[in-house]
## 1
Amino acid sequence: MPSPGRLANVLLQRRIPLQTRLDLLRAELGRRTRSRTAYAVRTGPGEVFLSHADYTVDWKSFAWVVADDAYPASYEGAVVLDLGAHKGYYGAHALAHGARIVVSFEPETANLELLERAAATHRARGADWRVRASAVGAERGEAELRLMAGSWAHSLHPPDSWAQWEVGTQRVPVEAMTDILREIGPLGGPLVVKINIEGEECRAVLGTPPEAWVGVSELFVEMHEWAGCSDTELEAHLAPVGFRRIPTPLERVLRLRREAAPRSDPRNAPT
């Protein structure tokens, strides 16, 4: 559960809509007095859900996106790829800030259930939120997802030290990053991509040719220390197609923006 200070800090942030703050307070009080399977929190046109069973992790994940502003892009009219969607807090945040389409990828069953519930409440009010029950990697196929006690830590390749928290496995489909970018490109408009895939970020980004990322306007990658590469390697991989790092106070998040197409981009060539 959040500390009293952390809870107060979030509830007093006026840039967070009042209805969202009131629902967070109701959830905190409700779980202590009359627990439910999940607690609804209004965000933009719909709701997201904090599970009772994993309340501490869900609350921190929600606050990371909404209160800490971990992914501060311009979402107005954007298409958003949410890779490693958890229960949909980032997708809802993007829609609340003007995103035109959100496509969320989440393979784990319990997370997926509340993600789909959240997306359904937004779709009922006209939002275009699409959910895919799959993991993301460099190559298409199937893989064994290792399930952890905390809902934000499920991973295809967790570090050995996590064995003590492993609670099971789940066979999941894996979609290739290159295929996803090719499919989403024709939707048009600015494309914002957020990657939080628990250690697969190096395989997914470095295993995808730089030219496949040309249609992306802004990219957020949450780095994990066991992933096998550094943020500077990801930055260098994407530099040839015009990506540049944008400073962020959150050291775990690499933020890259593609300001303009370089001369080598065939779409920028004279006709």
## 2
Amino acid sequence: MKKVAVLLSGGVDSSVALATLVEQGYDVEAFYLKIWLEDELSFLGDCPWQEDVSYAESVCKQFNVPLHIIPLQKEYHERIVSYTIDEVKAGRTPSPDVLCNRRIKFGVFFDHITDEYEKVASGHYARVEYNDTTSLYELHTAPDPVKDQTYFLSHLTQQQLSRIIFPIGHMQKHEVRQKAEQYNLLTKDRKDSQGICFLGKISFRDFVKHYLGTRTGNIIEFETNAVVGTHDGFWFYTVGQRKGLGLSGGPWYVVGKNVTDNSVYVSRQYHDEGKERNSFSIDAMHWISGSPSNRTELAIKVRHGVHYNAGTLTYHADGGVSVVLAQRDQGLAPGQFAVFYDGTCCLGSGVISKS
């Protein structure tokens, strides 16, 4: 009987994943990863981690499964929070949840458990398949395009994939809810979590403000170099942003930032044909199952969601990649992850360095 460590969040997805494994006869133990920075961010608001744990405990009690709470606040701050703040401070757009999966959930957590656990399971919507021809593990999309989470899993390694299972990865969300009803789980009607995993109900803006504060700067029209307003810090804005600018006569879009003089550049001509916004560079690609250097046409996501864009790739000797998209994209920003697909197979990802 395989022993499996299940990452339990207190939500319906991981609860059904656990229940499914128990039903299939696996020897299961559950683990809740405590990453909420309780001492540092408590004044900003409450994180529902204690509520999450109570739900997790109820599910474990129902199936007579041990639950372990693993404190990883220190590791999370060092590997995710610091990265996020550094990226924002540099004027880039970070993707903390992508690195959380590689560095924390399927990273340092592996160091906290022994080899007696043959597999680690979670409630992610994705599939892991072993390719007999290449002798490599592959990451594939879930059949539910809205819930598919391969974007956030695109930086995982072969070593990690070899140990991971996604028990609900082949299911649609409504099927997971139905399963939760059948098992009569306490989590069956619980809403899905939104936003960055460690912030809970705290807004990303408040989080950034806590670390970087505010500093008045100019909002400048890109085409005329005229000052059209002021802002509280370039770190509150990202390329392609339309809401929250406080400017009349729009719509206005953020088109750039100057981190040296704290300026934010905006335009009302964001969608003009002359503004291509269809190419970017990646300095170092992470390929999950080997570089597909024979493939120059791939599907690409530059953010989590259902939308793919066709793209043409040029591979460079230093491991970098240049990409030209078939269609313009509203928000290509340095720091974002671009994720590459061949059909259902998620090939890997890299951080946009220039757009």
## 3
Amino acid sequence: MRPAPDTRVLAVLLAVSALWYAGLTLFSAGADPARRAQELGAARAMARAIAAVAAAAPAPDPGTDPNRTGLIGLPYTAITTTLGSLPAKRTGAQPDAAALMARLMTRAGVQPGSRVAVESSGSFPGFTIAALVAARSLGAEAVPVVSVGASTYGANRPEFTLADMLDLLARRGLIQRGPAAVSPGGESDRGRDMDPAALEAALARAAARGAAILRPASLPADVALKRAILDGRGRPALFVSVGGNWAAAGPGEGLLGRTGLLTPDQFKAGGPEGTGLIQSYLRDRIPVIRILDVQDLCVRTGLAFDPIPWPAEGRSGLYRGNPPPRWLIALGPALAILAAVLVKRRRLISG
């Protein structure tokens, strides 16, 4: 006995609806199990790095650093350069920051054995450490170049700068190496807006640990010096820029504050306007991860913004993947309407 027309129509629509639901579930679940395991591994490594910094850092202020990370600095110190956002600094100081970095690096094409160039001010120590931890977890080789200066609540303790943090983590085996080079940061990347004694003491510690000390005379010289070190062991697969160091995008940048993963194909022929490191790498067809507008980054990726306390492992919006495309969301209601119309039409015809 052949099924009635209503039954056949409903069976087809039920099958299509099941596929629609599976599609939504796929987007909501995020990545495949292997990628999820990779990201969780990076997050766990970041948690170990945070614990190491917290143990060595001056006692954290529970009012500004409630998660006790040791990665949150002071409102103002002798090496503070500009105003910064405290919630943004705390956002980078969470384990999932490394999971996000691992995801973006994978999307950029980083593989075991790849080289990753990292340039950072002291403003977002959490994100800088997350980048280095993520690269290590992916089996990539990361070369960091950092500066001493930091915005408010960044790595702005003169006795415990970003370079000091990275050296500590390298000695503990939690990242591959400490800074390859250190520059002053601040105005023109020459530290003119910082206390000279505090700056020179920080640079002297970095030099004693083997870092090259960069004192650029101009922006082109700054870019050239840093690229020579970052590219010294071969063409990198990716450039990571954290914070607003002068050399990152240069003055009058044409990137309009863009953050996240930037690929050369997103820009017109010739690359974006500007003379900084980001533009230089994009013109050389090398993708860039830029960390600057943290709140926008969180909205677009699902990373928890200023979480107190941190989300449970693997439970933040980051692991739910990207939102489904609008057409896929609209498909469900459209199928329901179509089913009602077809059933009603067949009944009118048969009646």
